[in-house]
Specification:
The complex is a heterodimer. Chain A is mainly beta. Chain A is built from no helices and eleven strands. In chain A, the strands form two sheets. In chain A, strands 2, 4, 5, 6, 9, 10 and 11 form a seven-stranded mixed β-sheet that branches. A four-stranded antiparallel β-sheet of chain A has the order 1-3-8-7, with no helix packed on it. The mean pLDDT of chain A is about 90. In chain B, a hairpin with a 5-residue loop joins strand 6 and strand 7. Chain B is mainly β. Chain B is globular. The chains are: A mainly beta, B mainly beta. At the A-B interface, strand 4, strand 5, strand 9 and strand 10 of A face strand 5, strand 9 and strand 10 of B.
Chain lengths: ~120, ~120
């Protein structure tokens, strides 16, 4: 069974640019959640996708957007990058995705640096 | 709103000593509670979760946690620390009965194990 994978591992961008991060969910998992982990902080919930629809959103501006594809993989897009967007971005998948008791399986993350 | 507070951003113990990592939650109703571990350059791995009436929860790698409603606590313990336990530990909470698996994380506790 393949776990959650994320690409790229590291990324460096400059302010104002746009970035796309990718996540492949664990086999059979239909729900993907994205979290932002700033240095020295716990992960913060960005949003969740269930069967290709956004299922909930945290306190992040609209320039953070996402997609989920029919194979349940997902993308996180961030427009107009700011210095404070520098963080580790974590993707987590779960099944069946309709309960808060479902275990979320995390990928290794993408380290984004904004200069 | 859900929140957790992890007391002590850094904990150091000797190999073989008791490990105690503290977590207190804030919630109007008893939530579901989780402990995750993060090794360097890796994603989060679930250690254990509390989702039922059994207040003492056993997890992987010899860890356990006890849910104490009267103290709003969910402290993580391990009787005997091993060098391989050195990592960052996160306590997290989510709403009981919610279909959105949004996790609220604490700021984390870095565990150092001395030989």
């Amino acid at each position: 069974e393949t776990g959650v994978t994320q690409s790229p591992t590291h990324l460096i961008k400059t302010r104002g640019q746009q970035v796309t991060l990718r996540c492949s969910s664990q086999s059979g998992h239909n729900t993907v959640s994205w979290y932002q982990q700033a240095l020295g902080q716990g992960p913060q919930f960005i949003f969740q996708y269930y069967r290709e629809e956004e299922n909930g959103r945290g306190n992040f501006p609209p320039r953070f957007s996402g997609l989920q594809f029919p194979n349940y993989s997902s993308e996180l897009n961030v427009n107009a990058l700011e210095l404070d967007d520098s963080a580790l971005y974590l993707c987590a998948s779960s099944f069946p995705g309709r309960s808060s008791t479902d275990t979320q399986y995390f990928g290794p993350g993408t380290r984004l640096t904004v200069l | 709103a859900q929140s957790v507070t992890q007391l002590g951003s850094h904990v150091s113990v000797s190999e073989g000593a008791l490990v105690l990592l503290r977590c207190n939650y804030s919630s109007s109703v008893p939530p579901y509670l989780f402990w995750y571990v993060q090794y360097p350059n890796q994603g989060l791995q679930l250690l254990l979760k509390y989702t039922s009436a059994a207040t003492l929860v056993k997890g992987i790698n010899g860890f356990e946690a006890e849910f104490k409603k009267s103290e709003t606590s969910f402290h993580l313990t391990k009787p005997s620390a091993h060098m391989s336990d050195a990592a960052e530990y996160f306590c997290a909470v989510t709403s009981r009965g919610s279909t959105l698996g949004r996790l609220y994380f604490g700021r984390g506790t870095q565990l150092t194990v001395w030989p």
